[in-house]
């Protein structure tokens, strides 16, 4: 089984959190709302990987002003690729609290929508199990 280290920003702006609705046909949690993030590449530092993932998934205009490591956890997930194949992966998640100065997001094909969500509204979204656990551990659900 392959192992991946995943950097996961928990991005906040004026009390709202950025959620991304995954594409319906691929990823670890197809069609569900999630936090952004992705796997580290060989030779990258944590901060380089985080900056790259934010830029790739959310565009260059989102201005992150604060990054702080928050927590880590691990689990095993099945990832579905665009061609329909699947792979079981052992994932190590490195979660970071991030604050941004704006809400200028241009998302890529991994997502079908984004939303800025207040803590009171989180329960109204079909959050994937990992994102739900993160917000529970933060005391927001």
Describe the secondary structure blueprint for this structure:
Elements: E1 2-13, E2 16-22, E3 33-34, E4 38-39, H1 46-58, E5 64-80, E6 86-100, E7 111-117, H2 129-137
Parallel strand pairs: 1-6
Antiparallel strand pairs: 1-2, 1-4, 2-3, 2-7, 5-6
Describe the 3D structure:
It is globular, with a radius of gyration of 14 Å. It is α+β, with helices and mostly antiparallel strands and 141 residues long. The N and C termini lie far apart (32 Å). It contains 2 helices and 7 strands; from the N terminus they run ββββαβββα. The mean pLDDT is 93. Strands 1, 2, 3, 4, 5, 6 and 7 form a 7-stranded mixed β-sheet that branches.
The portion of residues assigned to helices is: 10-25%
| Beginning-to-end CA distance, first to last residue | 32 Å
**Strand portion, in percent?**
35-45%
* Computed structural class: alpha+beta
Number of helices: 2
Number of strands: 7
Q: Mean pLDDT across all residues, rounded?
A: 93
The low-pLDDT segments are none
Principal-axes geometry comes out as globular
Radius of gyration: 14 Å
Give the H and E element order: EEEEHEEEH
Q: How would you characterize the largest beta sheet? A: 7 strands, mixed
């Amino acid at each position: 089984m392959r192992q991946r280290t995943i950097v996961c920003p928990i991005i906040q702006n004026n009390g709202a959190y950025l959620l991304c609705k995954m594409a319906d046909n691929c990823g670890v949690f197809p069609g569900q709302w999630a936090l952004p993030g992705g796997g580290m590449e060989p030779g990258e530092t944590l901060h380089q990987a985080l900056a790259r993932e934010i830029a790739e998934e959310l565009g260059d205009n989102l201005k992150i002003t604060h990054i702080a490591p928050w927590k880590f956890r691990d689990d095993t997930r099945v990832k579905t690729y665009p061609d329909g194949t699947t792979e079981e992966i052992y994932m190590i998640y490195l979660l970071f609290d991030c604050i941004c100065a704006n809400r200028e997001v241009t998302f890529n094909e991994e997502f079908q929508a984004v939303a800025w969500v207040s803590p009171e509204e989180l329960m109204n979204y079909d959050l994937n199990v990992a994102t739900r656990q993160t917000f529970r551990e933060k005391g927001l659900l």
